[in-house]
Amino acid sequence: MNQASAGHLLRLIRGGQARTRGELQRVTGLSRSTVSQRLDQLFRAGWIREAAGDPVDAPTGGRPSLRLTFDTGHAVVLCADLETRHARAAVLDLGGTVLAEHSGALMINQGPDEVLGRLAHWFALLLDKADVRVDAVCGIGLSVPGPVHPVSGEVVQPPMMPGWDRYPVARRLRAALAAELRFDGASRIPVLLENDANLMALAEQRRNFADCSAFLLIKVSTGIGAGVVVGGEIYQGIDGAAGDIGHIRLSEYGYALCRCGFYGCLAAVASGRALAEQLTASGTPTASGSGVRDQLAVGHPDAVRLAREAGRLVGGVLATVVTLINPGVLMIAGDLAGPPFLTGVRETLYQRAMPRTTAYLQVVTSRLGDRAGLVGAAAMVVESLYAPDSADRRLAALAATTPARA
Ligand SMILES: [Zn+2]
């Protein structure tokens, strides 16, 4: 990587390692004029601002330095968090602030063609609601309830998403959006996909536990999945299958059929869907994970008991996960995240894991709640597009299409 490039300076500014021209010179060893030249590229693109903000450690007696900041308002991202029966979509600025949001029923098992067509329609309405022009959209991020290949970016062999295996999601969504907005440029917008638990983990780690170098999030909604952020990066494994703990099989539950087709999966006995079925069987009709959440919210005794039992089962599996990863934070998120489930998790986790692995472990519930997936999707898109290499490529492309300033 070119350590002196404009993209590299942008990373220092965004990361807070350098907040003024002087600091950029000190950190990079570049001359004053080279720093100015590189910054000019960033100013021309509209990506940064320079203003007298808070005085930043100016040398005593010197003039206060002007502060450089990433301009989070110069573009927007479109993001969607697709769940099995429901979806949430939003326009966000580059700092992850939601500018307009919509949520509603959207069945993932209707297949990608139908779901992405509907989503493009939602995006068009949201841009209108946020009063943002489509040419301000720099990227699209999708959170999906299945594994995503780290290189191809495709959904691969998802247990709960019939019809989505290796489907060209990016191409279909861009085409649908171009048709909705009558804007050919939509066909060039980057579309990035990632697993839902991974994006929730990314969002929560970035926003609330930035110093935690090993962060583990378990999402328990209709299904069960884990997201791991190690050293600041999502840990995907070699083909995106890392964290799919819902389909680990428990020997004592061989009778329970899972949606993936096998018997005895953790998700077949401890997920929101499994609890909904058990509640329904015991006389409380409950449709899905969100239905269980509603029952838990009103303190339904059966729901509370079942959630605690489910927590114990998940905690048993987490004893192994925590021993392997040794995280600083274990966050429980999703429809079941609440005191009964958390109590169950603690019971088996602390009993079965070595005290040394859990001595400094914080077990917490989600801070961002239902928006974690959206915030994570936006962070993924922004971090990808403004990383030094892609920032430099995009700046070069912009310079080629924009006449030079006189
Ligand atoms: Zn399964």
TrEMBL record:
Gene3D superfamilies: 3.30.420.40, Winged helix-like DNA-binding domain superfamily/Winged helix DNA-binding domain
Family note: Belongs to the ROK (NagC/XylR) family.
Coiled-coil annotated spans: none
Name used for this protein in its record: ROK family transcriptional regulator
Gene source species: Streptomyces radicis
InterPro entries: ArsR-like_HTH (IPR011991), ATPase_NBD (IPR043129), ROK (IPR000600), ROK_cs (IPR049874), WH-like_DNA-bd_sf (IPR036388), WH_DNA-bd_sf (IPR036390)
Origin: domain of life: Bacteria
Pfam assignment, any one: ROK
